Amino acid sequence: MKLNIRIGHGFDVHAFAENRRLVLGGVDIPHTMGLLGHSDADVLIHALCDALLGAAGMGDIGRHFPDSDVQYKDADSALLLAHVVKLLEAAGWGIGNVDITVMAQVPKLAPFVADMRVRLAELLLVDQGEVNIKATTTEKLGFVGRKEGIACEAVALISRL
Ligand SMILES: Nc1ccn([C@@H]2O[C@H](COP(=O)(O)O)[C@@H](O)[C@H]2O)c(=O)n1
Ligand SMILES: C[C@@]1(CO)OP(=O)(O)OP(=O)(O)OC[C@H]1O
């Protein structure tokens, strides 16, 4: 039996670096360090793109936006997410809800979560209630705990349009 709903999971990591922006969920966050990447290194949006592409059986973000392609140098990841939403729509998939966990020892993200939900809901073409964002430290353990970078996991539910 072919189900009308599917689930996907995404995971991404980017290292902290000096003189870089910190952009998470399409929102600029003031911090002493930013994230290193070929694009703007929005680790949250990258994990979310992978969750959506995974749910649709469409591979991963690197397949659609190769980091060897100069057109994605310093790319705005919000535009990549908007493109992924279009790809899903063209394949007959609508987005149900997404749940995201950002692992960051610093900075404190709670004050920015509301803005991220607004931005992501706009990009995903869903109500804000369908976008949940959580943040956690790793209690000073591992690369996240040593403030070497930020990791993010996302899950997404999609359904047949
Ligand atoms: N970068 C972060 C990490 C955590 N939070 C908020 O603090 C709460 C407690 O964090 P734990 O690591 O002890 O689980 C967490 O539930 C978040 O609300 C944050 O805002 N930014
Ligand atoms: C977003 C892309 C775009 O070139 O580049 P990066 O910013 O390096 O991000 P990463 O998650 O390592 O790889 C995915 C790429 O598609």
TrEMBL record:
One of its GO terms (molecular function) is metal ion binding. The keyword Ligase does not apply. Pfam families: YgbB (PF02542). Keywords: Isoprene biosynthesis, Lyase, Metal-binding. The keyword Lyase applies. 4-CDP-2-C-methyl-D-erythritol 2-phosphate binds at residues 12-14, 38-39, 60-62, 65-69, 136-139, 143, 146. It catalyses: 4-CDP-2-C-methyl-D-erythritol 2-phosphate = 2-C-methyl-D-erythritol 2,4-cyclic diphosphate + CMP. Binds 1 divalent metal cation per subunit. Gene3D superfamilies: 2-C-methyl-D-erythritol 2,4-cyclodiphosphate synthase. PROSITE patterns: ISPF. CDD domains: MECDP_synthase (cd00554). A divalent metal cation binds at D12, H14, H46. It comes from the Bacteria. Residues 5-158 form the 2-C-methyl-D-erythritol 2,4-cyclodiphosphate synthase domain. InterPro entries: MECDP_synthase (IPR003526), MECDP_synthase_CS (IPR020555), MECDP_synthase_sf (IPR036571). Its EC number is 4.6.1.12. Involved in the biosynthesis of isopentenyl diphosphate (IPP) and dimethylallyl diphosphate (DMAPP), two major building blocks of isoprenoid compounds. Catalyzes the conversion of 4-diphosphocytidyl-2-C-methyl-D-erythritol 2-phosphate (CDP-ME2P) to 2-C-methyl-D-erythritol 2,4-cyclodiphosphate (ME-CPP) with a corresponding release of cytidine 5-monophosphate (CMP). PANTHER family: 2-C-METHYL-D-ERYTHRITOL 2,4-CYCLODIPHOSPHATE SYNTHASE, CHLOROPLASTIC (PTHR43181). Belongs to the IspF family. NCBIfam families: ispF. Homotrimer. This is 2-C-methyl-D-erythritol 2,4-cyclodiphosphate synthase. The gene is ispF.
